């Protein structure tokens, strides 16, 4: 018979519950639960919730989910800055200078007037990517950016016209992609 702190008149249901809850939680196991690289896949969504990650999708690949968890602390530290925008884009795989995925953030009135484009409001910004994205990815990116930019700022456009489209059968013409701007 197991040692238990339950009273002798405990119901069988209460005894079964006590057996289920009597887990061996070692400090190493608890430390692994809070590490993005070592946590079991089944725990990642709970870890994301604990870290206040604003956007989470169970259909993301495991590597992407772990990357989003790793980046979350830095995103929270730098919310409202250009660095937070780049961290968000890195988390979803659209910014990685090592692999050639660049992003250019065009801020406010001065930059757009210099580029020969119509002047924007000072609180508007545009993002130019050199990688194609689907319409769903653009919607996700817009939602994620809305969680880190200051409330006064507004995303004017996501521009990926400089992205090279290969006609190799990977991109389907079924209204899931747009060529250039979303």
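Q: What amino acid sequence fits the structure above?
A:
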């Amino acid at each position: 018979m197991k040692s238990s702190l339950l009273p002798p008149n405990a119901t069988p249901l209460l005894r079964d519950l006590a057996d289920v809850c009597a887990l061996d939680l070692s400090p190493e196991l608890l430390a692994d639960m809070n590490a993005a690289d070592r946590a079991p896949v089944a725990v990642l969504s709970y870890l994301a919730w604990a870290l206040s990650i604003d956007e989470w999708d169970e259909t993301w690949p495991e590597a992407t989910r772990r990357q989003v968890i790793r980046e979350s602390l830095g995103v929270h530290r730098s919310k409202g800055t250009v660095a937070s925008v780049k961290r968000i884009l890195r988390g979803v795989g659209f910014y990685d200078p090592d692999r050639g995925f660049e992003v250019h953030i065009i801020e406010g009135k001065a930059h757009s007037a210099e580029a020969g484009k119509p002047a924007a409001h000072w609180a508007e910004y545009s993002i130019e990517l050199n990688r194609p994205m689907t319409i769903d990815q653009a919607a996700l990116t817009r939602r994620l950016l809305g969680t880190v930019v200051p409330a006064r700022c507004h995303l004017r456009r996501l521009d990926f016209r400089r992205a090279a489209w290969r006609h190799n059968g990977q991109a389907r013409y079924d209204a899931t992609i747009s060529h250039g701007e979303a």
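Q: And what stands out in the fold?
A: Residues 81-182 form one domain.
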